[in-house]
Amino acid sequence: MYALQDFFGAARDLRAWSYLAAKQIQFDYRRNLLGSAWIVIGFAITTGGIGWLIAQLQGRDIAVHIPYVAFGFVAWNFILSAVTEGSHALTRNRGLLLQAPMERSVFVFSLVLKKLFLLVIQLATAMALAAALGWRPSMTLFMLLPGLLVLTLTAVGTVTFLSVIGTVLRDVAELISAGMRLTFFFTPIIWTVEARFAQDAGPNGLELVARLNPFTYFVELIRAPALGTMPGMETWIVTIGIGLLMLLLGLAALQWLGRRLVFWL
Q1: How far apart are CA 35 and CA 37, in angstroms?
Q2: Furthest C-alpha separation in the chain
Q3: What are the tens digits of pLDDT across the range 77-116?
Q4: Residues 223-249: what's their mean pLDDT?
Q5: CA distance 105 to 86
Q6: Any alpha helices (H) in 36-61, and if so which ranges?
Q7: Can you tell me the distance from the alpha carbon of 172 to that of 40, in angstroms, rounded to the nearest whole number?
Q8: Helix count (H) and strand count (E) of the chain?
Q9: What DSSP state is assigned to residue 60?
Q10: Rounded (5°) CA angle 32-33-38
């Protein structure tokens, strides 16, 4: 089976995809005076500013809301970048794919590894920001590990699927980008279900929106343990189910079009 051979062949070549991930991070921040320090600075400024603003609008305690927003952004930034960049994972490496017989999954793994590296840096930044406001870690923090595992497996399947489909249908990238911009506002990242300005939306209006949005559950995999609570059983069922589905879809797309992708590059 071509898809499994490609997948496991790439997984064994750790040196190749870790090297690609490291070089991509260096490339993204080349010629900047502060280099990769902008990952920390940009994240802290954005989350701190938005957290303060929404806390004022909702009437929430800043010391509570800014950590809520910061840990929410840690998960959302990983999801957003994996989904939006996933459709370009193969086309942006056109030169390498045309020059050498490389497994397609190498570029999937390198992209996911890069995003995991950024997630860890942003998570550490969120913890430092929250600690400055009185947040203290608890034992539930260890539940971040299985949450990160589910996020990673889901990202691998999603990037595999989107990279194949996005190579054949280039409009997919634009459609996903537009959809994710809208989805951000319907995901409880900067707002809460108990928002003061949500009263006009009717009873449980935002709660229904949050429950029907699958991204809510993936955000909770990171935010809930960081804030001292355990993700609910519903969260695990939804995220693991979606993760397995995306892995199957990714392997199916790779099996169907993997060998012929060079004709669309």
Answers
A1: 5
A2: 59
A3: 999 999 998 888 888 877 777 776 777 888 899 999 999 9
A4: 94
A5: 12
A6: 37-58
A7: 31
A8: 11, 0
A9: -
A10: 65
Q: Which residue has the tokens 């589905």?
A: 245
Cβ atoms of 242 and 154 within 8 Å: the answer is yes
- CA 13 to chain CA centroid, Å, is 23
Total residue length of the chain: 265
How far is Cα 48 from Cα 50, in angstroms, rounded to an integer?
6
Which amino acid, residue 143? M
- Which residue has 């997948």 as its token pair? 7
pLDDT tens sequence across 173-217: 889 988 998 999 899 999 887 765 545 555 556 778 888 899 999
Q: Are 98 and 265 in contact (CB under 8 A)?
A: yes
Q: Check if the beta carbon of residue 110 is closer than 8 Å to that of residue 24.
A: yes
Which residue shows structure tokens 């449980």? 204
Is residue 156 classed exposed, middle or buried when 0-12, 13-18 and 19+ CB atoms within 10 A define those classes? buried
Predicted confidence (pLDDT) at residue 252 exceeds the cutoff of 70: yes
Whether 19 shows a pLDDT value over 90: the answer reads: no
- The amino acid sitting at 149 is L
Q: Give the residue carrying structure tokens 């079009």.
A: 257
d(CA 94, CA 91): 5
Instruction: Identify whether the C-beta of residue 260 lies closer than 8 Å to the C-beta of residue 182.
Output: no
Alpha carbon of residue 38 to chain centroid: 19
pTM given for the model: 0.87
